[in-house]
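Quick review question:
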């Protein structure tokens, strides 16, 4: 039974993450569309609002709920795991990802109202936060207690720095065009 639930958990983690990554990509395009002249701006904004809403309601949110249900089921089936430090830390990162998900929902609702508080560069950096959370969660799930905390922290911080540098380099590249 556990392996079936694990398979469902993994499948819907992939769906949830794909939804989150694409959602923020749509936010970037939606934000950049605000620099277009009319009627392009209105046409693009309307289309992005439809795409964001469908992506969130049909793929991203349902996937998150299935991930949480499957995860809780796995913990129920392996109750001793709740006492293990790796799972407790993983759960903190998962809570961070759930918060990220809800912040994305809030951004989507703001954009629907014509409120664009973040630049496309800020959104690109925001997108990388999901990558960092994903890395932390997967490494904890796979390596469990075999992961050195020092190595883990240094690895996550290094990944964050590399991703931030990559976003800045990409921004410069885009500005040259």
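Suggested answer, residue by residue:
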């Amino acid at each position: 039974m556990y392996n079936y639930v694990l398979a469902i958990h993994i499948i819907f983690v992939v769906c949830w993450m794909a939804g989150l990554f694409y959602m923020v990509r749509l936010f970037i395009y939606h934000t950049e569309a605000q620099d277009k002249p009319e009627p392009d701006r209105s046409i693009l904004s309307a289309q992005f609002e439809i795409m964001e809403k469908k992506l969130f309601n049909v793929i991203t949110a349902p996937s998150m709920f299935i991930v949480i249900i499957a995860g809780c089921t796995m913990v129920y089936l392996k109750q001793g795991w709740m006492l293990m430090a790796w799972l407790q830390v993983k759960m903190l990162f998962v809570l961070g990802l759930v918060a990220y998900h809800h912040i994305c929902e809030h951004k989507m609702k703001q954009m629907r109202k014509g409120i664009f508080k973040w630049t496309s560069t800020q959104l690109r950096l925001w997108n990388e936060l999901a990558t960092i959370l994903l890395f932390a969660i997967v490494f904890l799930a796979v390596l469990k207690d075999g992961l050195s905390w020092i190595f883990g922290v240094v690895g996550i911080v290094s990944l964050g720095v590399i991703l931030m540098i990559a976003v800045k380099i990409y921004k410069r590249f885009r500005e040259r065009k």
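Why it works: The chain has a mean pLDDT of 91. The chain has five helices and no strands.
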